[in-house]
Amino acid sequence: MFTEIFMIKTHVLGFPRIGAQRELKQALERFWRGELDETALQATGRALRRRHWQRQREAGLDFVTVGDFALYDQVLDLIQLLGCEPSRFCFGPDDSPLRRAFAMARGTQHASSDGEGCSQHETSQPQAALEMTKWFDTNYHYLVPEFAPTTRFALQAEPLLAQVDEAIALPASPKVALLGPVSFLFLGKSKVEGWERLDLLEALLPVYAQLLTRLAARGVTWVQLDEPILGLDLAPAWRDALRRAYQVLSGADCELLLASYFSPLEDNLALACTLPVAGLHVDAVRAPQELEQVARQLPPERELSVGIIDGRNVWRTDLDAALATLQRVRALRGGRLWVSASCSLLHVPYALSADAGLDAELRSWLAGADEKLDELRLLQRALWGDEAGVAEALARSRAAVAARRTSARVRNVAVARRLAELPADLDRRSSPYAKRQPLQQHRLALPEYPTTTIGSFPQTAEIRATRAARRRGALDDAAYRGTMEREIERAVRCQEALGLDVLVHGEAERNDMVEYFGELLAGYAISANGWVQSYGSRCVKPPVLYGDVSRPQAMTVDWTRFAQGLTDKPVKGMLTGPVTLLQWSFVRDDQPRETTALQLALALRDEVADLEAAGIAVIQIDEPAFREGLPLRRAQWPAYLDWAARAFRIAASAVRDDTQIHTHMCYSEFNDVLPAIAAMDADVITIETSRSDMELLAAFGAFRYPNGIGPGVYDVHSPRVPTTEEMLRLMRKAGAVIPAAQLWVNPDCGLKTRAWPETEAALRRMVDAARRLRAA
Ligand code: GLN
Ligand code: ZN
Q1: What is the pTM of this model?
Q2: Residue 191, CB-side half-sphere exposure with 13 Å CA sphere
Q3: What is the rounded distance in angstroms from the CA atom of residue 4 to the CA atom of residue 698?
Q4: Which amino acids bring their CB within 6 angstroms of ligand 1?
Q5: Whole-angstrom distance, CA of residue 130 vs CA of residue 693
Q6: Can you tell me the mean pLDDT for 385-392?
Q7: Who contacts 185 (Cβ-Cβ below 8 Å, separation ≥6)?
Q8: 739: cis peptide before it, omega within 30°?
Q9: What pLDDT digit, counting tens, does each position of 674-692 carry?
Q10: pLDDT confidence of residue 118
Q11: Nearest Cα to Cα of residue 263 among 288, 294, 296
């Protein structure tokens, strides 16, 4: 056992930073409201780091990870560490690093995206925040570095070095984790045409090298450099950049652990195994099929870190299976091995084993970051040969994994049978769009350029308070229903007064477009505290989809019927689509995602049928996450797009020809997936376009998108009320590429984050814009 102790090491690539009780969120928001000063905010950060390192130490990890903590975003911190804040912010010597960071993250007052250069006279030109985008295929959003030929780097190492000192003082042995130089450049953006951001590599590498020297001098032996782009289809120039970067950095005084995750290495496998670093981390959850090859190919003197515990999902690890794998790999590696989670634990909740929202059986199946640390501990001790010491804990884990596998709660025979017996044409409407369209027009009698909204209306403090009171049990069903119906009526009357053509009920009863359905569908559970950071202080609480999905009763019909009863105008039924439910939940890992999506689709199909039977003539099935479900590797795109579009069609196609199906998409660039969007065969798609100035529509036009389309004419994420002229301009731009007969007029997305006055004002102008288009 003695030598094994030195030969098996455990670590994590990163740990959730928001805190077990979202302490970081609270501190940030209090700071922004002016209720907390900078010293207190920094103290919260220090306390969280300390607590999280202590947990890592207790779990017997060989290193605590430093550098994964960030008050807002780790890429933002890296921008500051490397001294490449975009010059458009015109920071002066009086701006503290913290103020600079928040200015980049959140923009400065009255920001516009076309900020001018720094002027000596006007020091505070308002600046838009850095762009934010999804971190690979996760729901975490990072701030996008901005690069230009004028970008300079200058190391600002003190904040990071101070964190290293904090860890050493604990005392603990720090491993510093940072995004590597090539992924850093890759994930940034340049707005300068004809210039390649890779040109900055030679300027960037010396700064990384300097940093490594400073870290080594501070007592750091291992530095983990994340290069997740190793899991992408890379152009040759980027692979060359990786070669060049690690050749330069191999001279450093610390040992480098190169980390890849989220996606198989495939054609980058040989490269990853040959870059001159001291260790390589691979994701053995997303790419188990490559593990053995890596273990053989990686030179024997290097460390192999195996990410065997799922860092992207909440299920307890099958430790027997993990141990078997690790033992095989260890044998290939001459007995030496590092064991870890597949990726940073940032993407899972802090803890789940005591979550108050989940029953004891479910809790026993789950592992948040904290429980995953314990799993690492168990694996390490088992690999040390301490069988007696871990026997009991292993048995408990084994029992929980087995219980989940055989639980009656997971299986629903009726669902399985329905899926097995799916008629081949279940995903087809009875007639093609060309035939449906006139029938729908006959039923709905809509004007040219019909107007509608995306679904939600302002979620006022009163609405939130009412939902919260009901959750606490402080409000009975009748009182709750009464308040919600008053809100629905208010939304309907408002839309009638504004003269909108297709109305919505406003979604007052929905806390969240996924959680709402998760609460009503069987096979889903909602945790009380399973929060995951989305960006900055924003967290999401994805529901846990643990079993076969079915719909015990109708979910939206009563509310929709009530709304339709108030008006002669058509009211849209509103559903969240199967792919978005899948994408924004923690889903089961014991069957393909496709199967889960089809189960969701069948449940939604029944809801669609019930809505139609209740007299609803227009049904919208939102799929904002359709694009983000794309696998990281292009070779896997066709298969995904195929089942994703099919799942949507299965949900949608239960209806008669004269019932109109809408879908809605946002948050993405859709050019890559246009054929699949067309294959969804929705009668109308409403889509976010205003922020890109309708650029997207050129692609829809060139593709000759056949069905109805409502390009968003204004950005709902800003409180600014656009003018009628602006909206007209965007619609004319749309009209230049899409035939008028196909066009709808609507905002970019739902209005739930807006207040009533600006909502009414904007919609009034939008309806006015549509009227003027009709008159023209
Ligand atoms: N129907 C939803 C709403 O209006 C759509 C939200 C979304 O696209 N993210 O709120
Ligand atoms: Zn949207």
Answers
A1: 0.95
A2: 9
A3: 61
A4: 454-456, 507, 513, 574, 622, 624, 664, 666, 749-750, 752
A5: 18
A6: 94
A7: 147, 197, 198, 200, 201, 204, 241
A8: no
A9: 999 999 999 999 999 887 7
A10: 58
A11: 288
